Amino acid sequence: MLAAGTASAEMQLQWQDRDVARMVSLGGSCNRCELSGRNLSGATFTGASFVSATLVGTNLRGAELVGSNFSSSDFSRADLHGAELVGSNFTAGVFNDAVLNGAEAQGAVFSRANLTGANLSGAELVGANMNGAILARANLSGAELFGTTLANVNARSANFAEAQMNAANMANGDFGSASFANAELDGARLSGASFDRANFSGASLNRTDIRGADLSRATGLTQAQISTACGDSTTRLPRNLTARTCTRVVVRAPRAPAPPAPPQPRRNIVIADAN
Fold it and tell me: What percentage of the chain reaches a pLDDT higher than 90?
């Protein structure tokens, strides 16, 4: 048994071997914890504070990180396949080349997070806040991004193919060379965003707000698509395409789900092996 003190909690670890814990329960506070390379698959973090923690290369497959604060934490190359991240705070976190495919992150906050090269394919990000995030080369194909805030992002060369982005706020983002092939952007807000060489083949743009958007070098756009969107004189389109003006553009994004209530305060963080 290994015990290590922290400012507000104690950690007790009991491992089957040095690196593997089959059943894990973490709560309380463990800011700046070093958990890199651990096997925390199936772990439960509920109402916990892990600010500036380091989880580089950590196995968190199927883990529950619910209603917890992981702001400024480093998840580079971590495996969060199928993890539940509902209502958690990952502001300014680092997820370079992390695996989050199939993750459930409704209402999670990724503001200013770095997700360069991350795999979020099929992830559920409804109502998530990714304002100012870096999504360069990230894979969000097939992701659910309904009402997601993607304003001010750097999403150059990101893959949004077949993603559901209805009512998403993409204002002022950089989506150069991104793919929106067969994506749904109905009612999304693209105002002020740049789409240099972005691919819109087969994308749905019904009442999409493209006022002030720069689509002049986008590919795959047709007049049929643009005719269903809402633009104005500031909309920049490829040659021979003309935007229509809508009398009223109303986008109602879904309300982000409320995070679960935190558990009763406790003093210890416990990691226990099943055996």
Answer: 78
